[in-house]
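User: Hi! I'm working on a homework problem where we have to compare a predicted structure to a textbook description. Could you give me the structure for the chain below?
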Amino acid sequence: MQHLGPDGMSSYESNVEDGRGGEDPANLTRSIFRVVAPNWRACEVGKWLEPFDAIHLFSHHNSNDLRGQYPRLWLRTPHTVDRTTRAVKDLPVNAYDPAWLEQQTQADFTIRATNQCYEFQHDNRLFR
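Assistant: Happy to help. Predicted structure tokens:
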């Protein structure tokens, strides 16, 4: 996760502006954010990151420390990608979307994917 860094994380698009629903300023709603994944990142990486988001939400919800912004409600929809992000270099080859990686020219020099494959799995004991 540290090697992915901020550039390897998804971004979010809100369904409303400034937490207001529609055009009526009196209609306050809780924003829902659509997850937008980097187009270069393999889907399995996003699925691997989901439990970390859930654990963060759960721990914040059960904490007495209410400083900071409350974690956002997010919605994952398939195929919502950001084509403008730059790929993180030197990740295991299976961290990259195979179709995207195949289209890269000189990927050995620009992306430098390692030959190792990371097992994007969690031990189920983590969630007990």
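For your comparison, note the following. DSSP finds three helices and four strands in the chain. The beta strands are 11-14, 32-38, 73-75, 81-82. Good luck with the assignment!
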